[in-house]
Known about the structure:
Elements: E1 2-5, E2 14-17, E3 28-37, H1 39-46, E4 61-69, E5 81-83, H2 94-97, E6 121-124, H3 127-130, E7 132-133, H4 140-144, H5 149-160, E8 168-172, H6 176-187, E9 191-195, H7 199-207, E10 212-214, H8 218-226, E11 230-235, H9 240-248, E12 250-258, H10 273-279, E13 282-285, H11 294-303, E14 312-317, H12 321-327, E15 336-340
Parallel strand pairs: 8-9, 8-11, 9-10, 11-12, 12-13, 14-15
Antiparallel strand pairs: 1-2, 3-4, 3-6, 3-15, 4-5, 5-7
Amino acid sequence: MRAVLVTEFGGTPVLAEVEDPAPAPHGVVVAVEATGVCRSDWHAWQGHDDDVTLPHVPGHELAGTVAAVGADVRGWRVGDRVTSPFVTACGTCPECAAGAQQVCRDQTQPGFTGWGSFAELVALDHADVNLVALPEGFPAATAAALGCRVATAFRAVSDVAAVRPGEFVAVHGAGGVGLSAIAVAAAAGARVVAVDPSEGARELALAFGAEHAVAADVVDTVHELTGGGAHVSIDAVGLPVTCENSVRSLRRRGRHVQVGLLPAAAGRPAVPMDRVIAYELQVLGSHGMAAHDYPRLLDLVGSGRFPLADLVTRELPLEAGPRALAEVAAATTAGITVLRP
């Protein structure tokens, strides 16, 4: 099969012919129809993730068709169109037994612990726990975004932050996960302030339901626009400055949700714990979403209140993967870029 292969952290990836994967007894192999290019893939390429070993194929947001099935799989067959969370859970650990597969202690992750979906084929573990059936006619390019950014944003807003109608929500970063969080919060009846330095990203944020979109003087501006600070603030980027700004953007008893990764290589954020104590703030983490929660997200998409298709602003062939990966850090394209193997 063809795949985008990383042979040196930070070095230029190449399009290469590599061996086809085989399914584990509990897993499947999926023929990739579309795969999103995410900031997490960029971190893996840069060597910021200890799980990644070289040579490596990135990619963890995917949609496609089951091409091979392991002997122990009961719920899926060749030809099924599917997506999957980026956390492929074991299904048997205490966290999985409690329904929290997104923090499975024995998880694997395509594109991190193993080769991912910047390829024509990808192997996924524990298929009966992790695969999600796509509704008939669901476009592959938009379905690919569900595996990480959209699902992560949905759970962060709906479940972790538990956003309520009328609350002010500040979203720091209007990339794929930020735009998704904006749309989900707006659909929940919240009043959203988007923060992003890119004019194109701010324009998309307004189109996705934000009342305001700001670029500078972030903390003061959010406090002014919300009459004292946001009830909920989400760092959808994962930089020390966006994390700190998110916490400082909150009103008293507000909830900060950290979604963007904060690798040590980028520096540690100066979280103002004195403010956390004095304001009785909640500091929360959010890590993806379990497969069993996807029906709620698909219902929201089907309702028309979440414009999922509008998130995908660029579709490229697989051979454009190295260039698209390199462009992530510069944030030259608003919305989500999808590769089409």
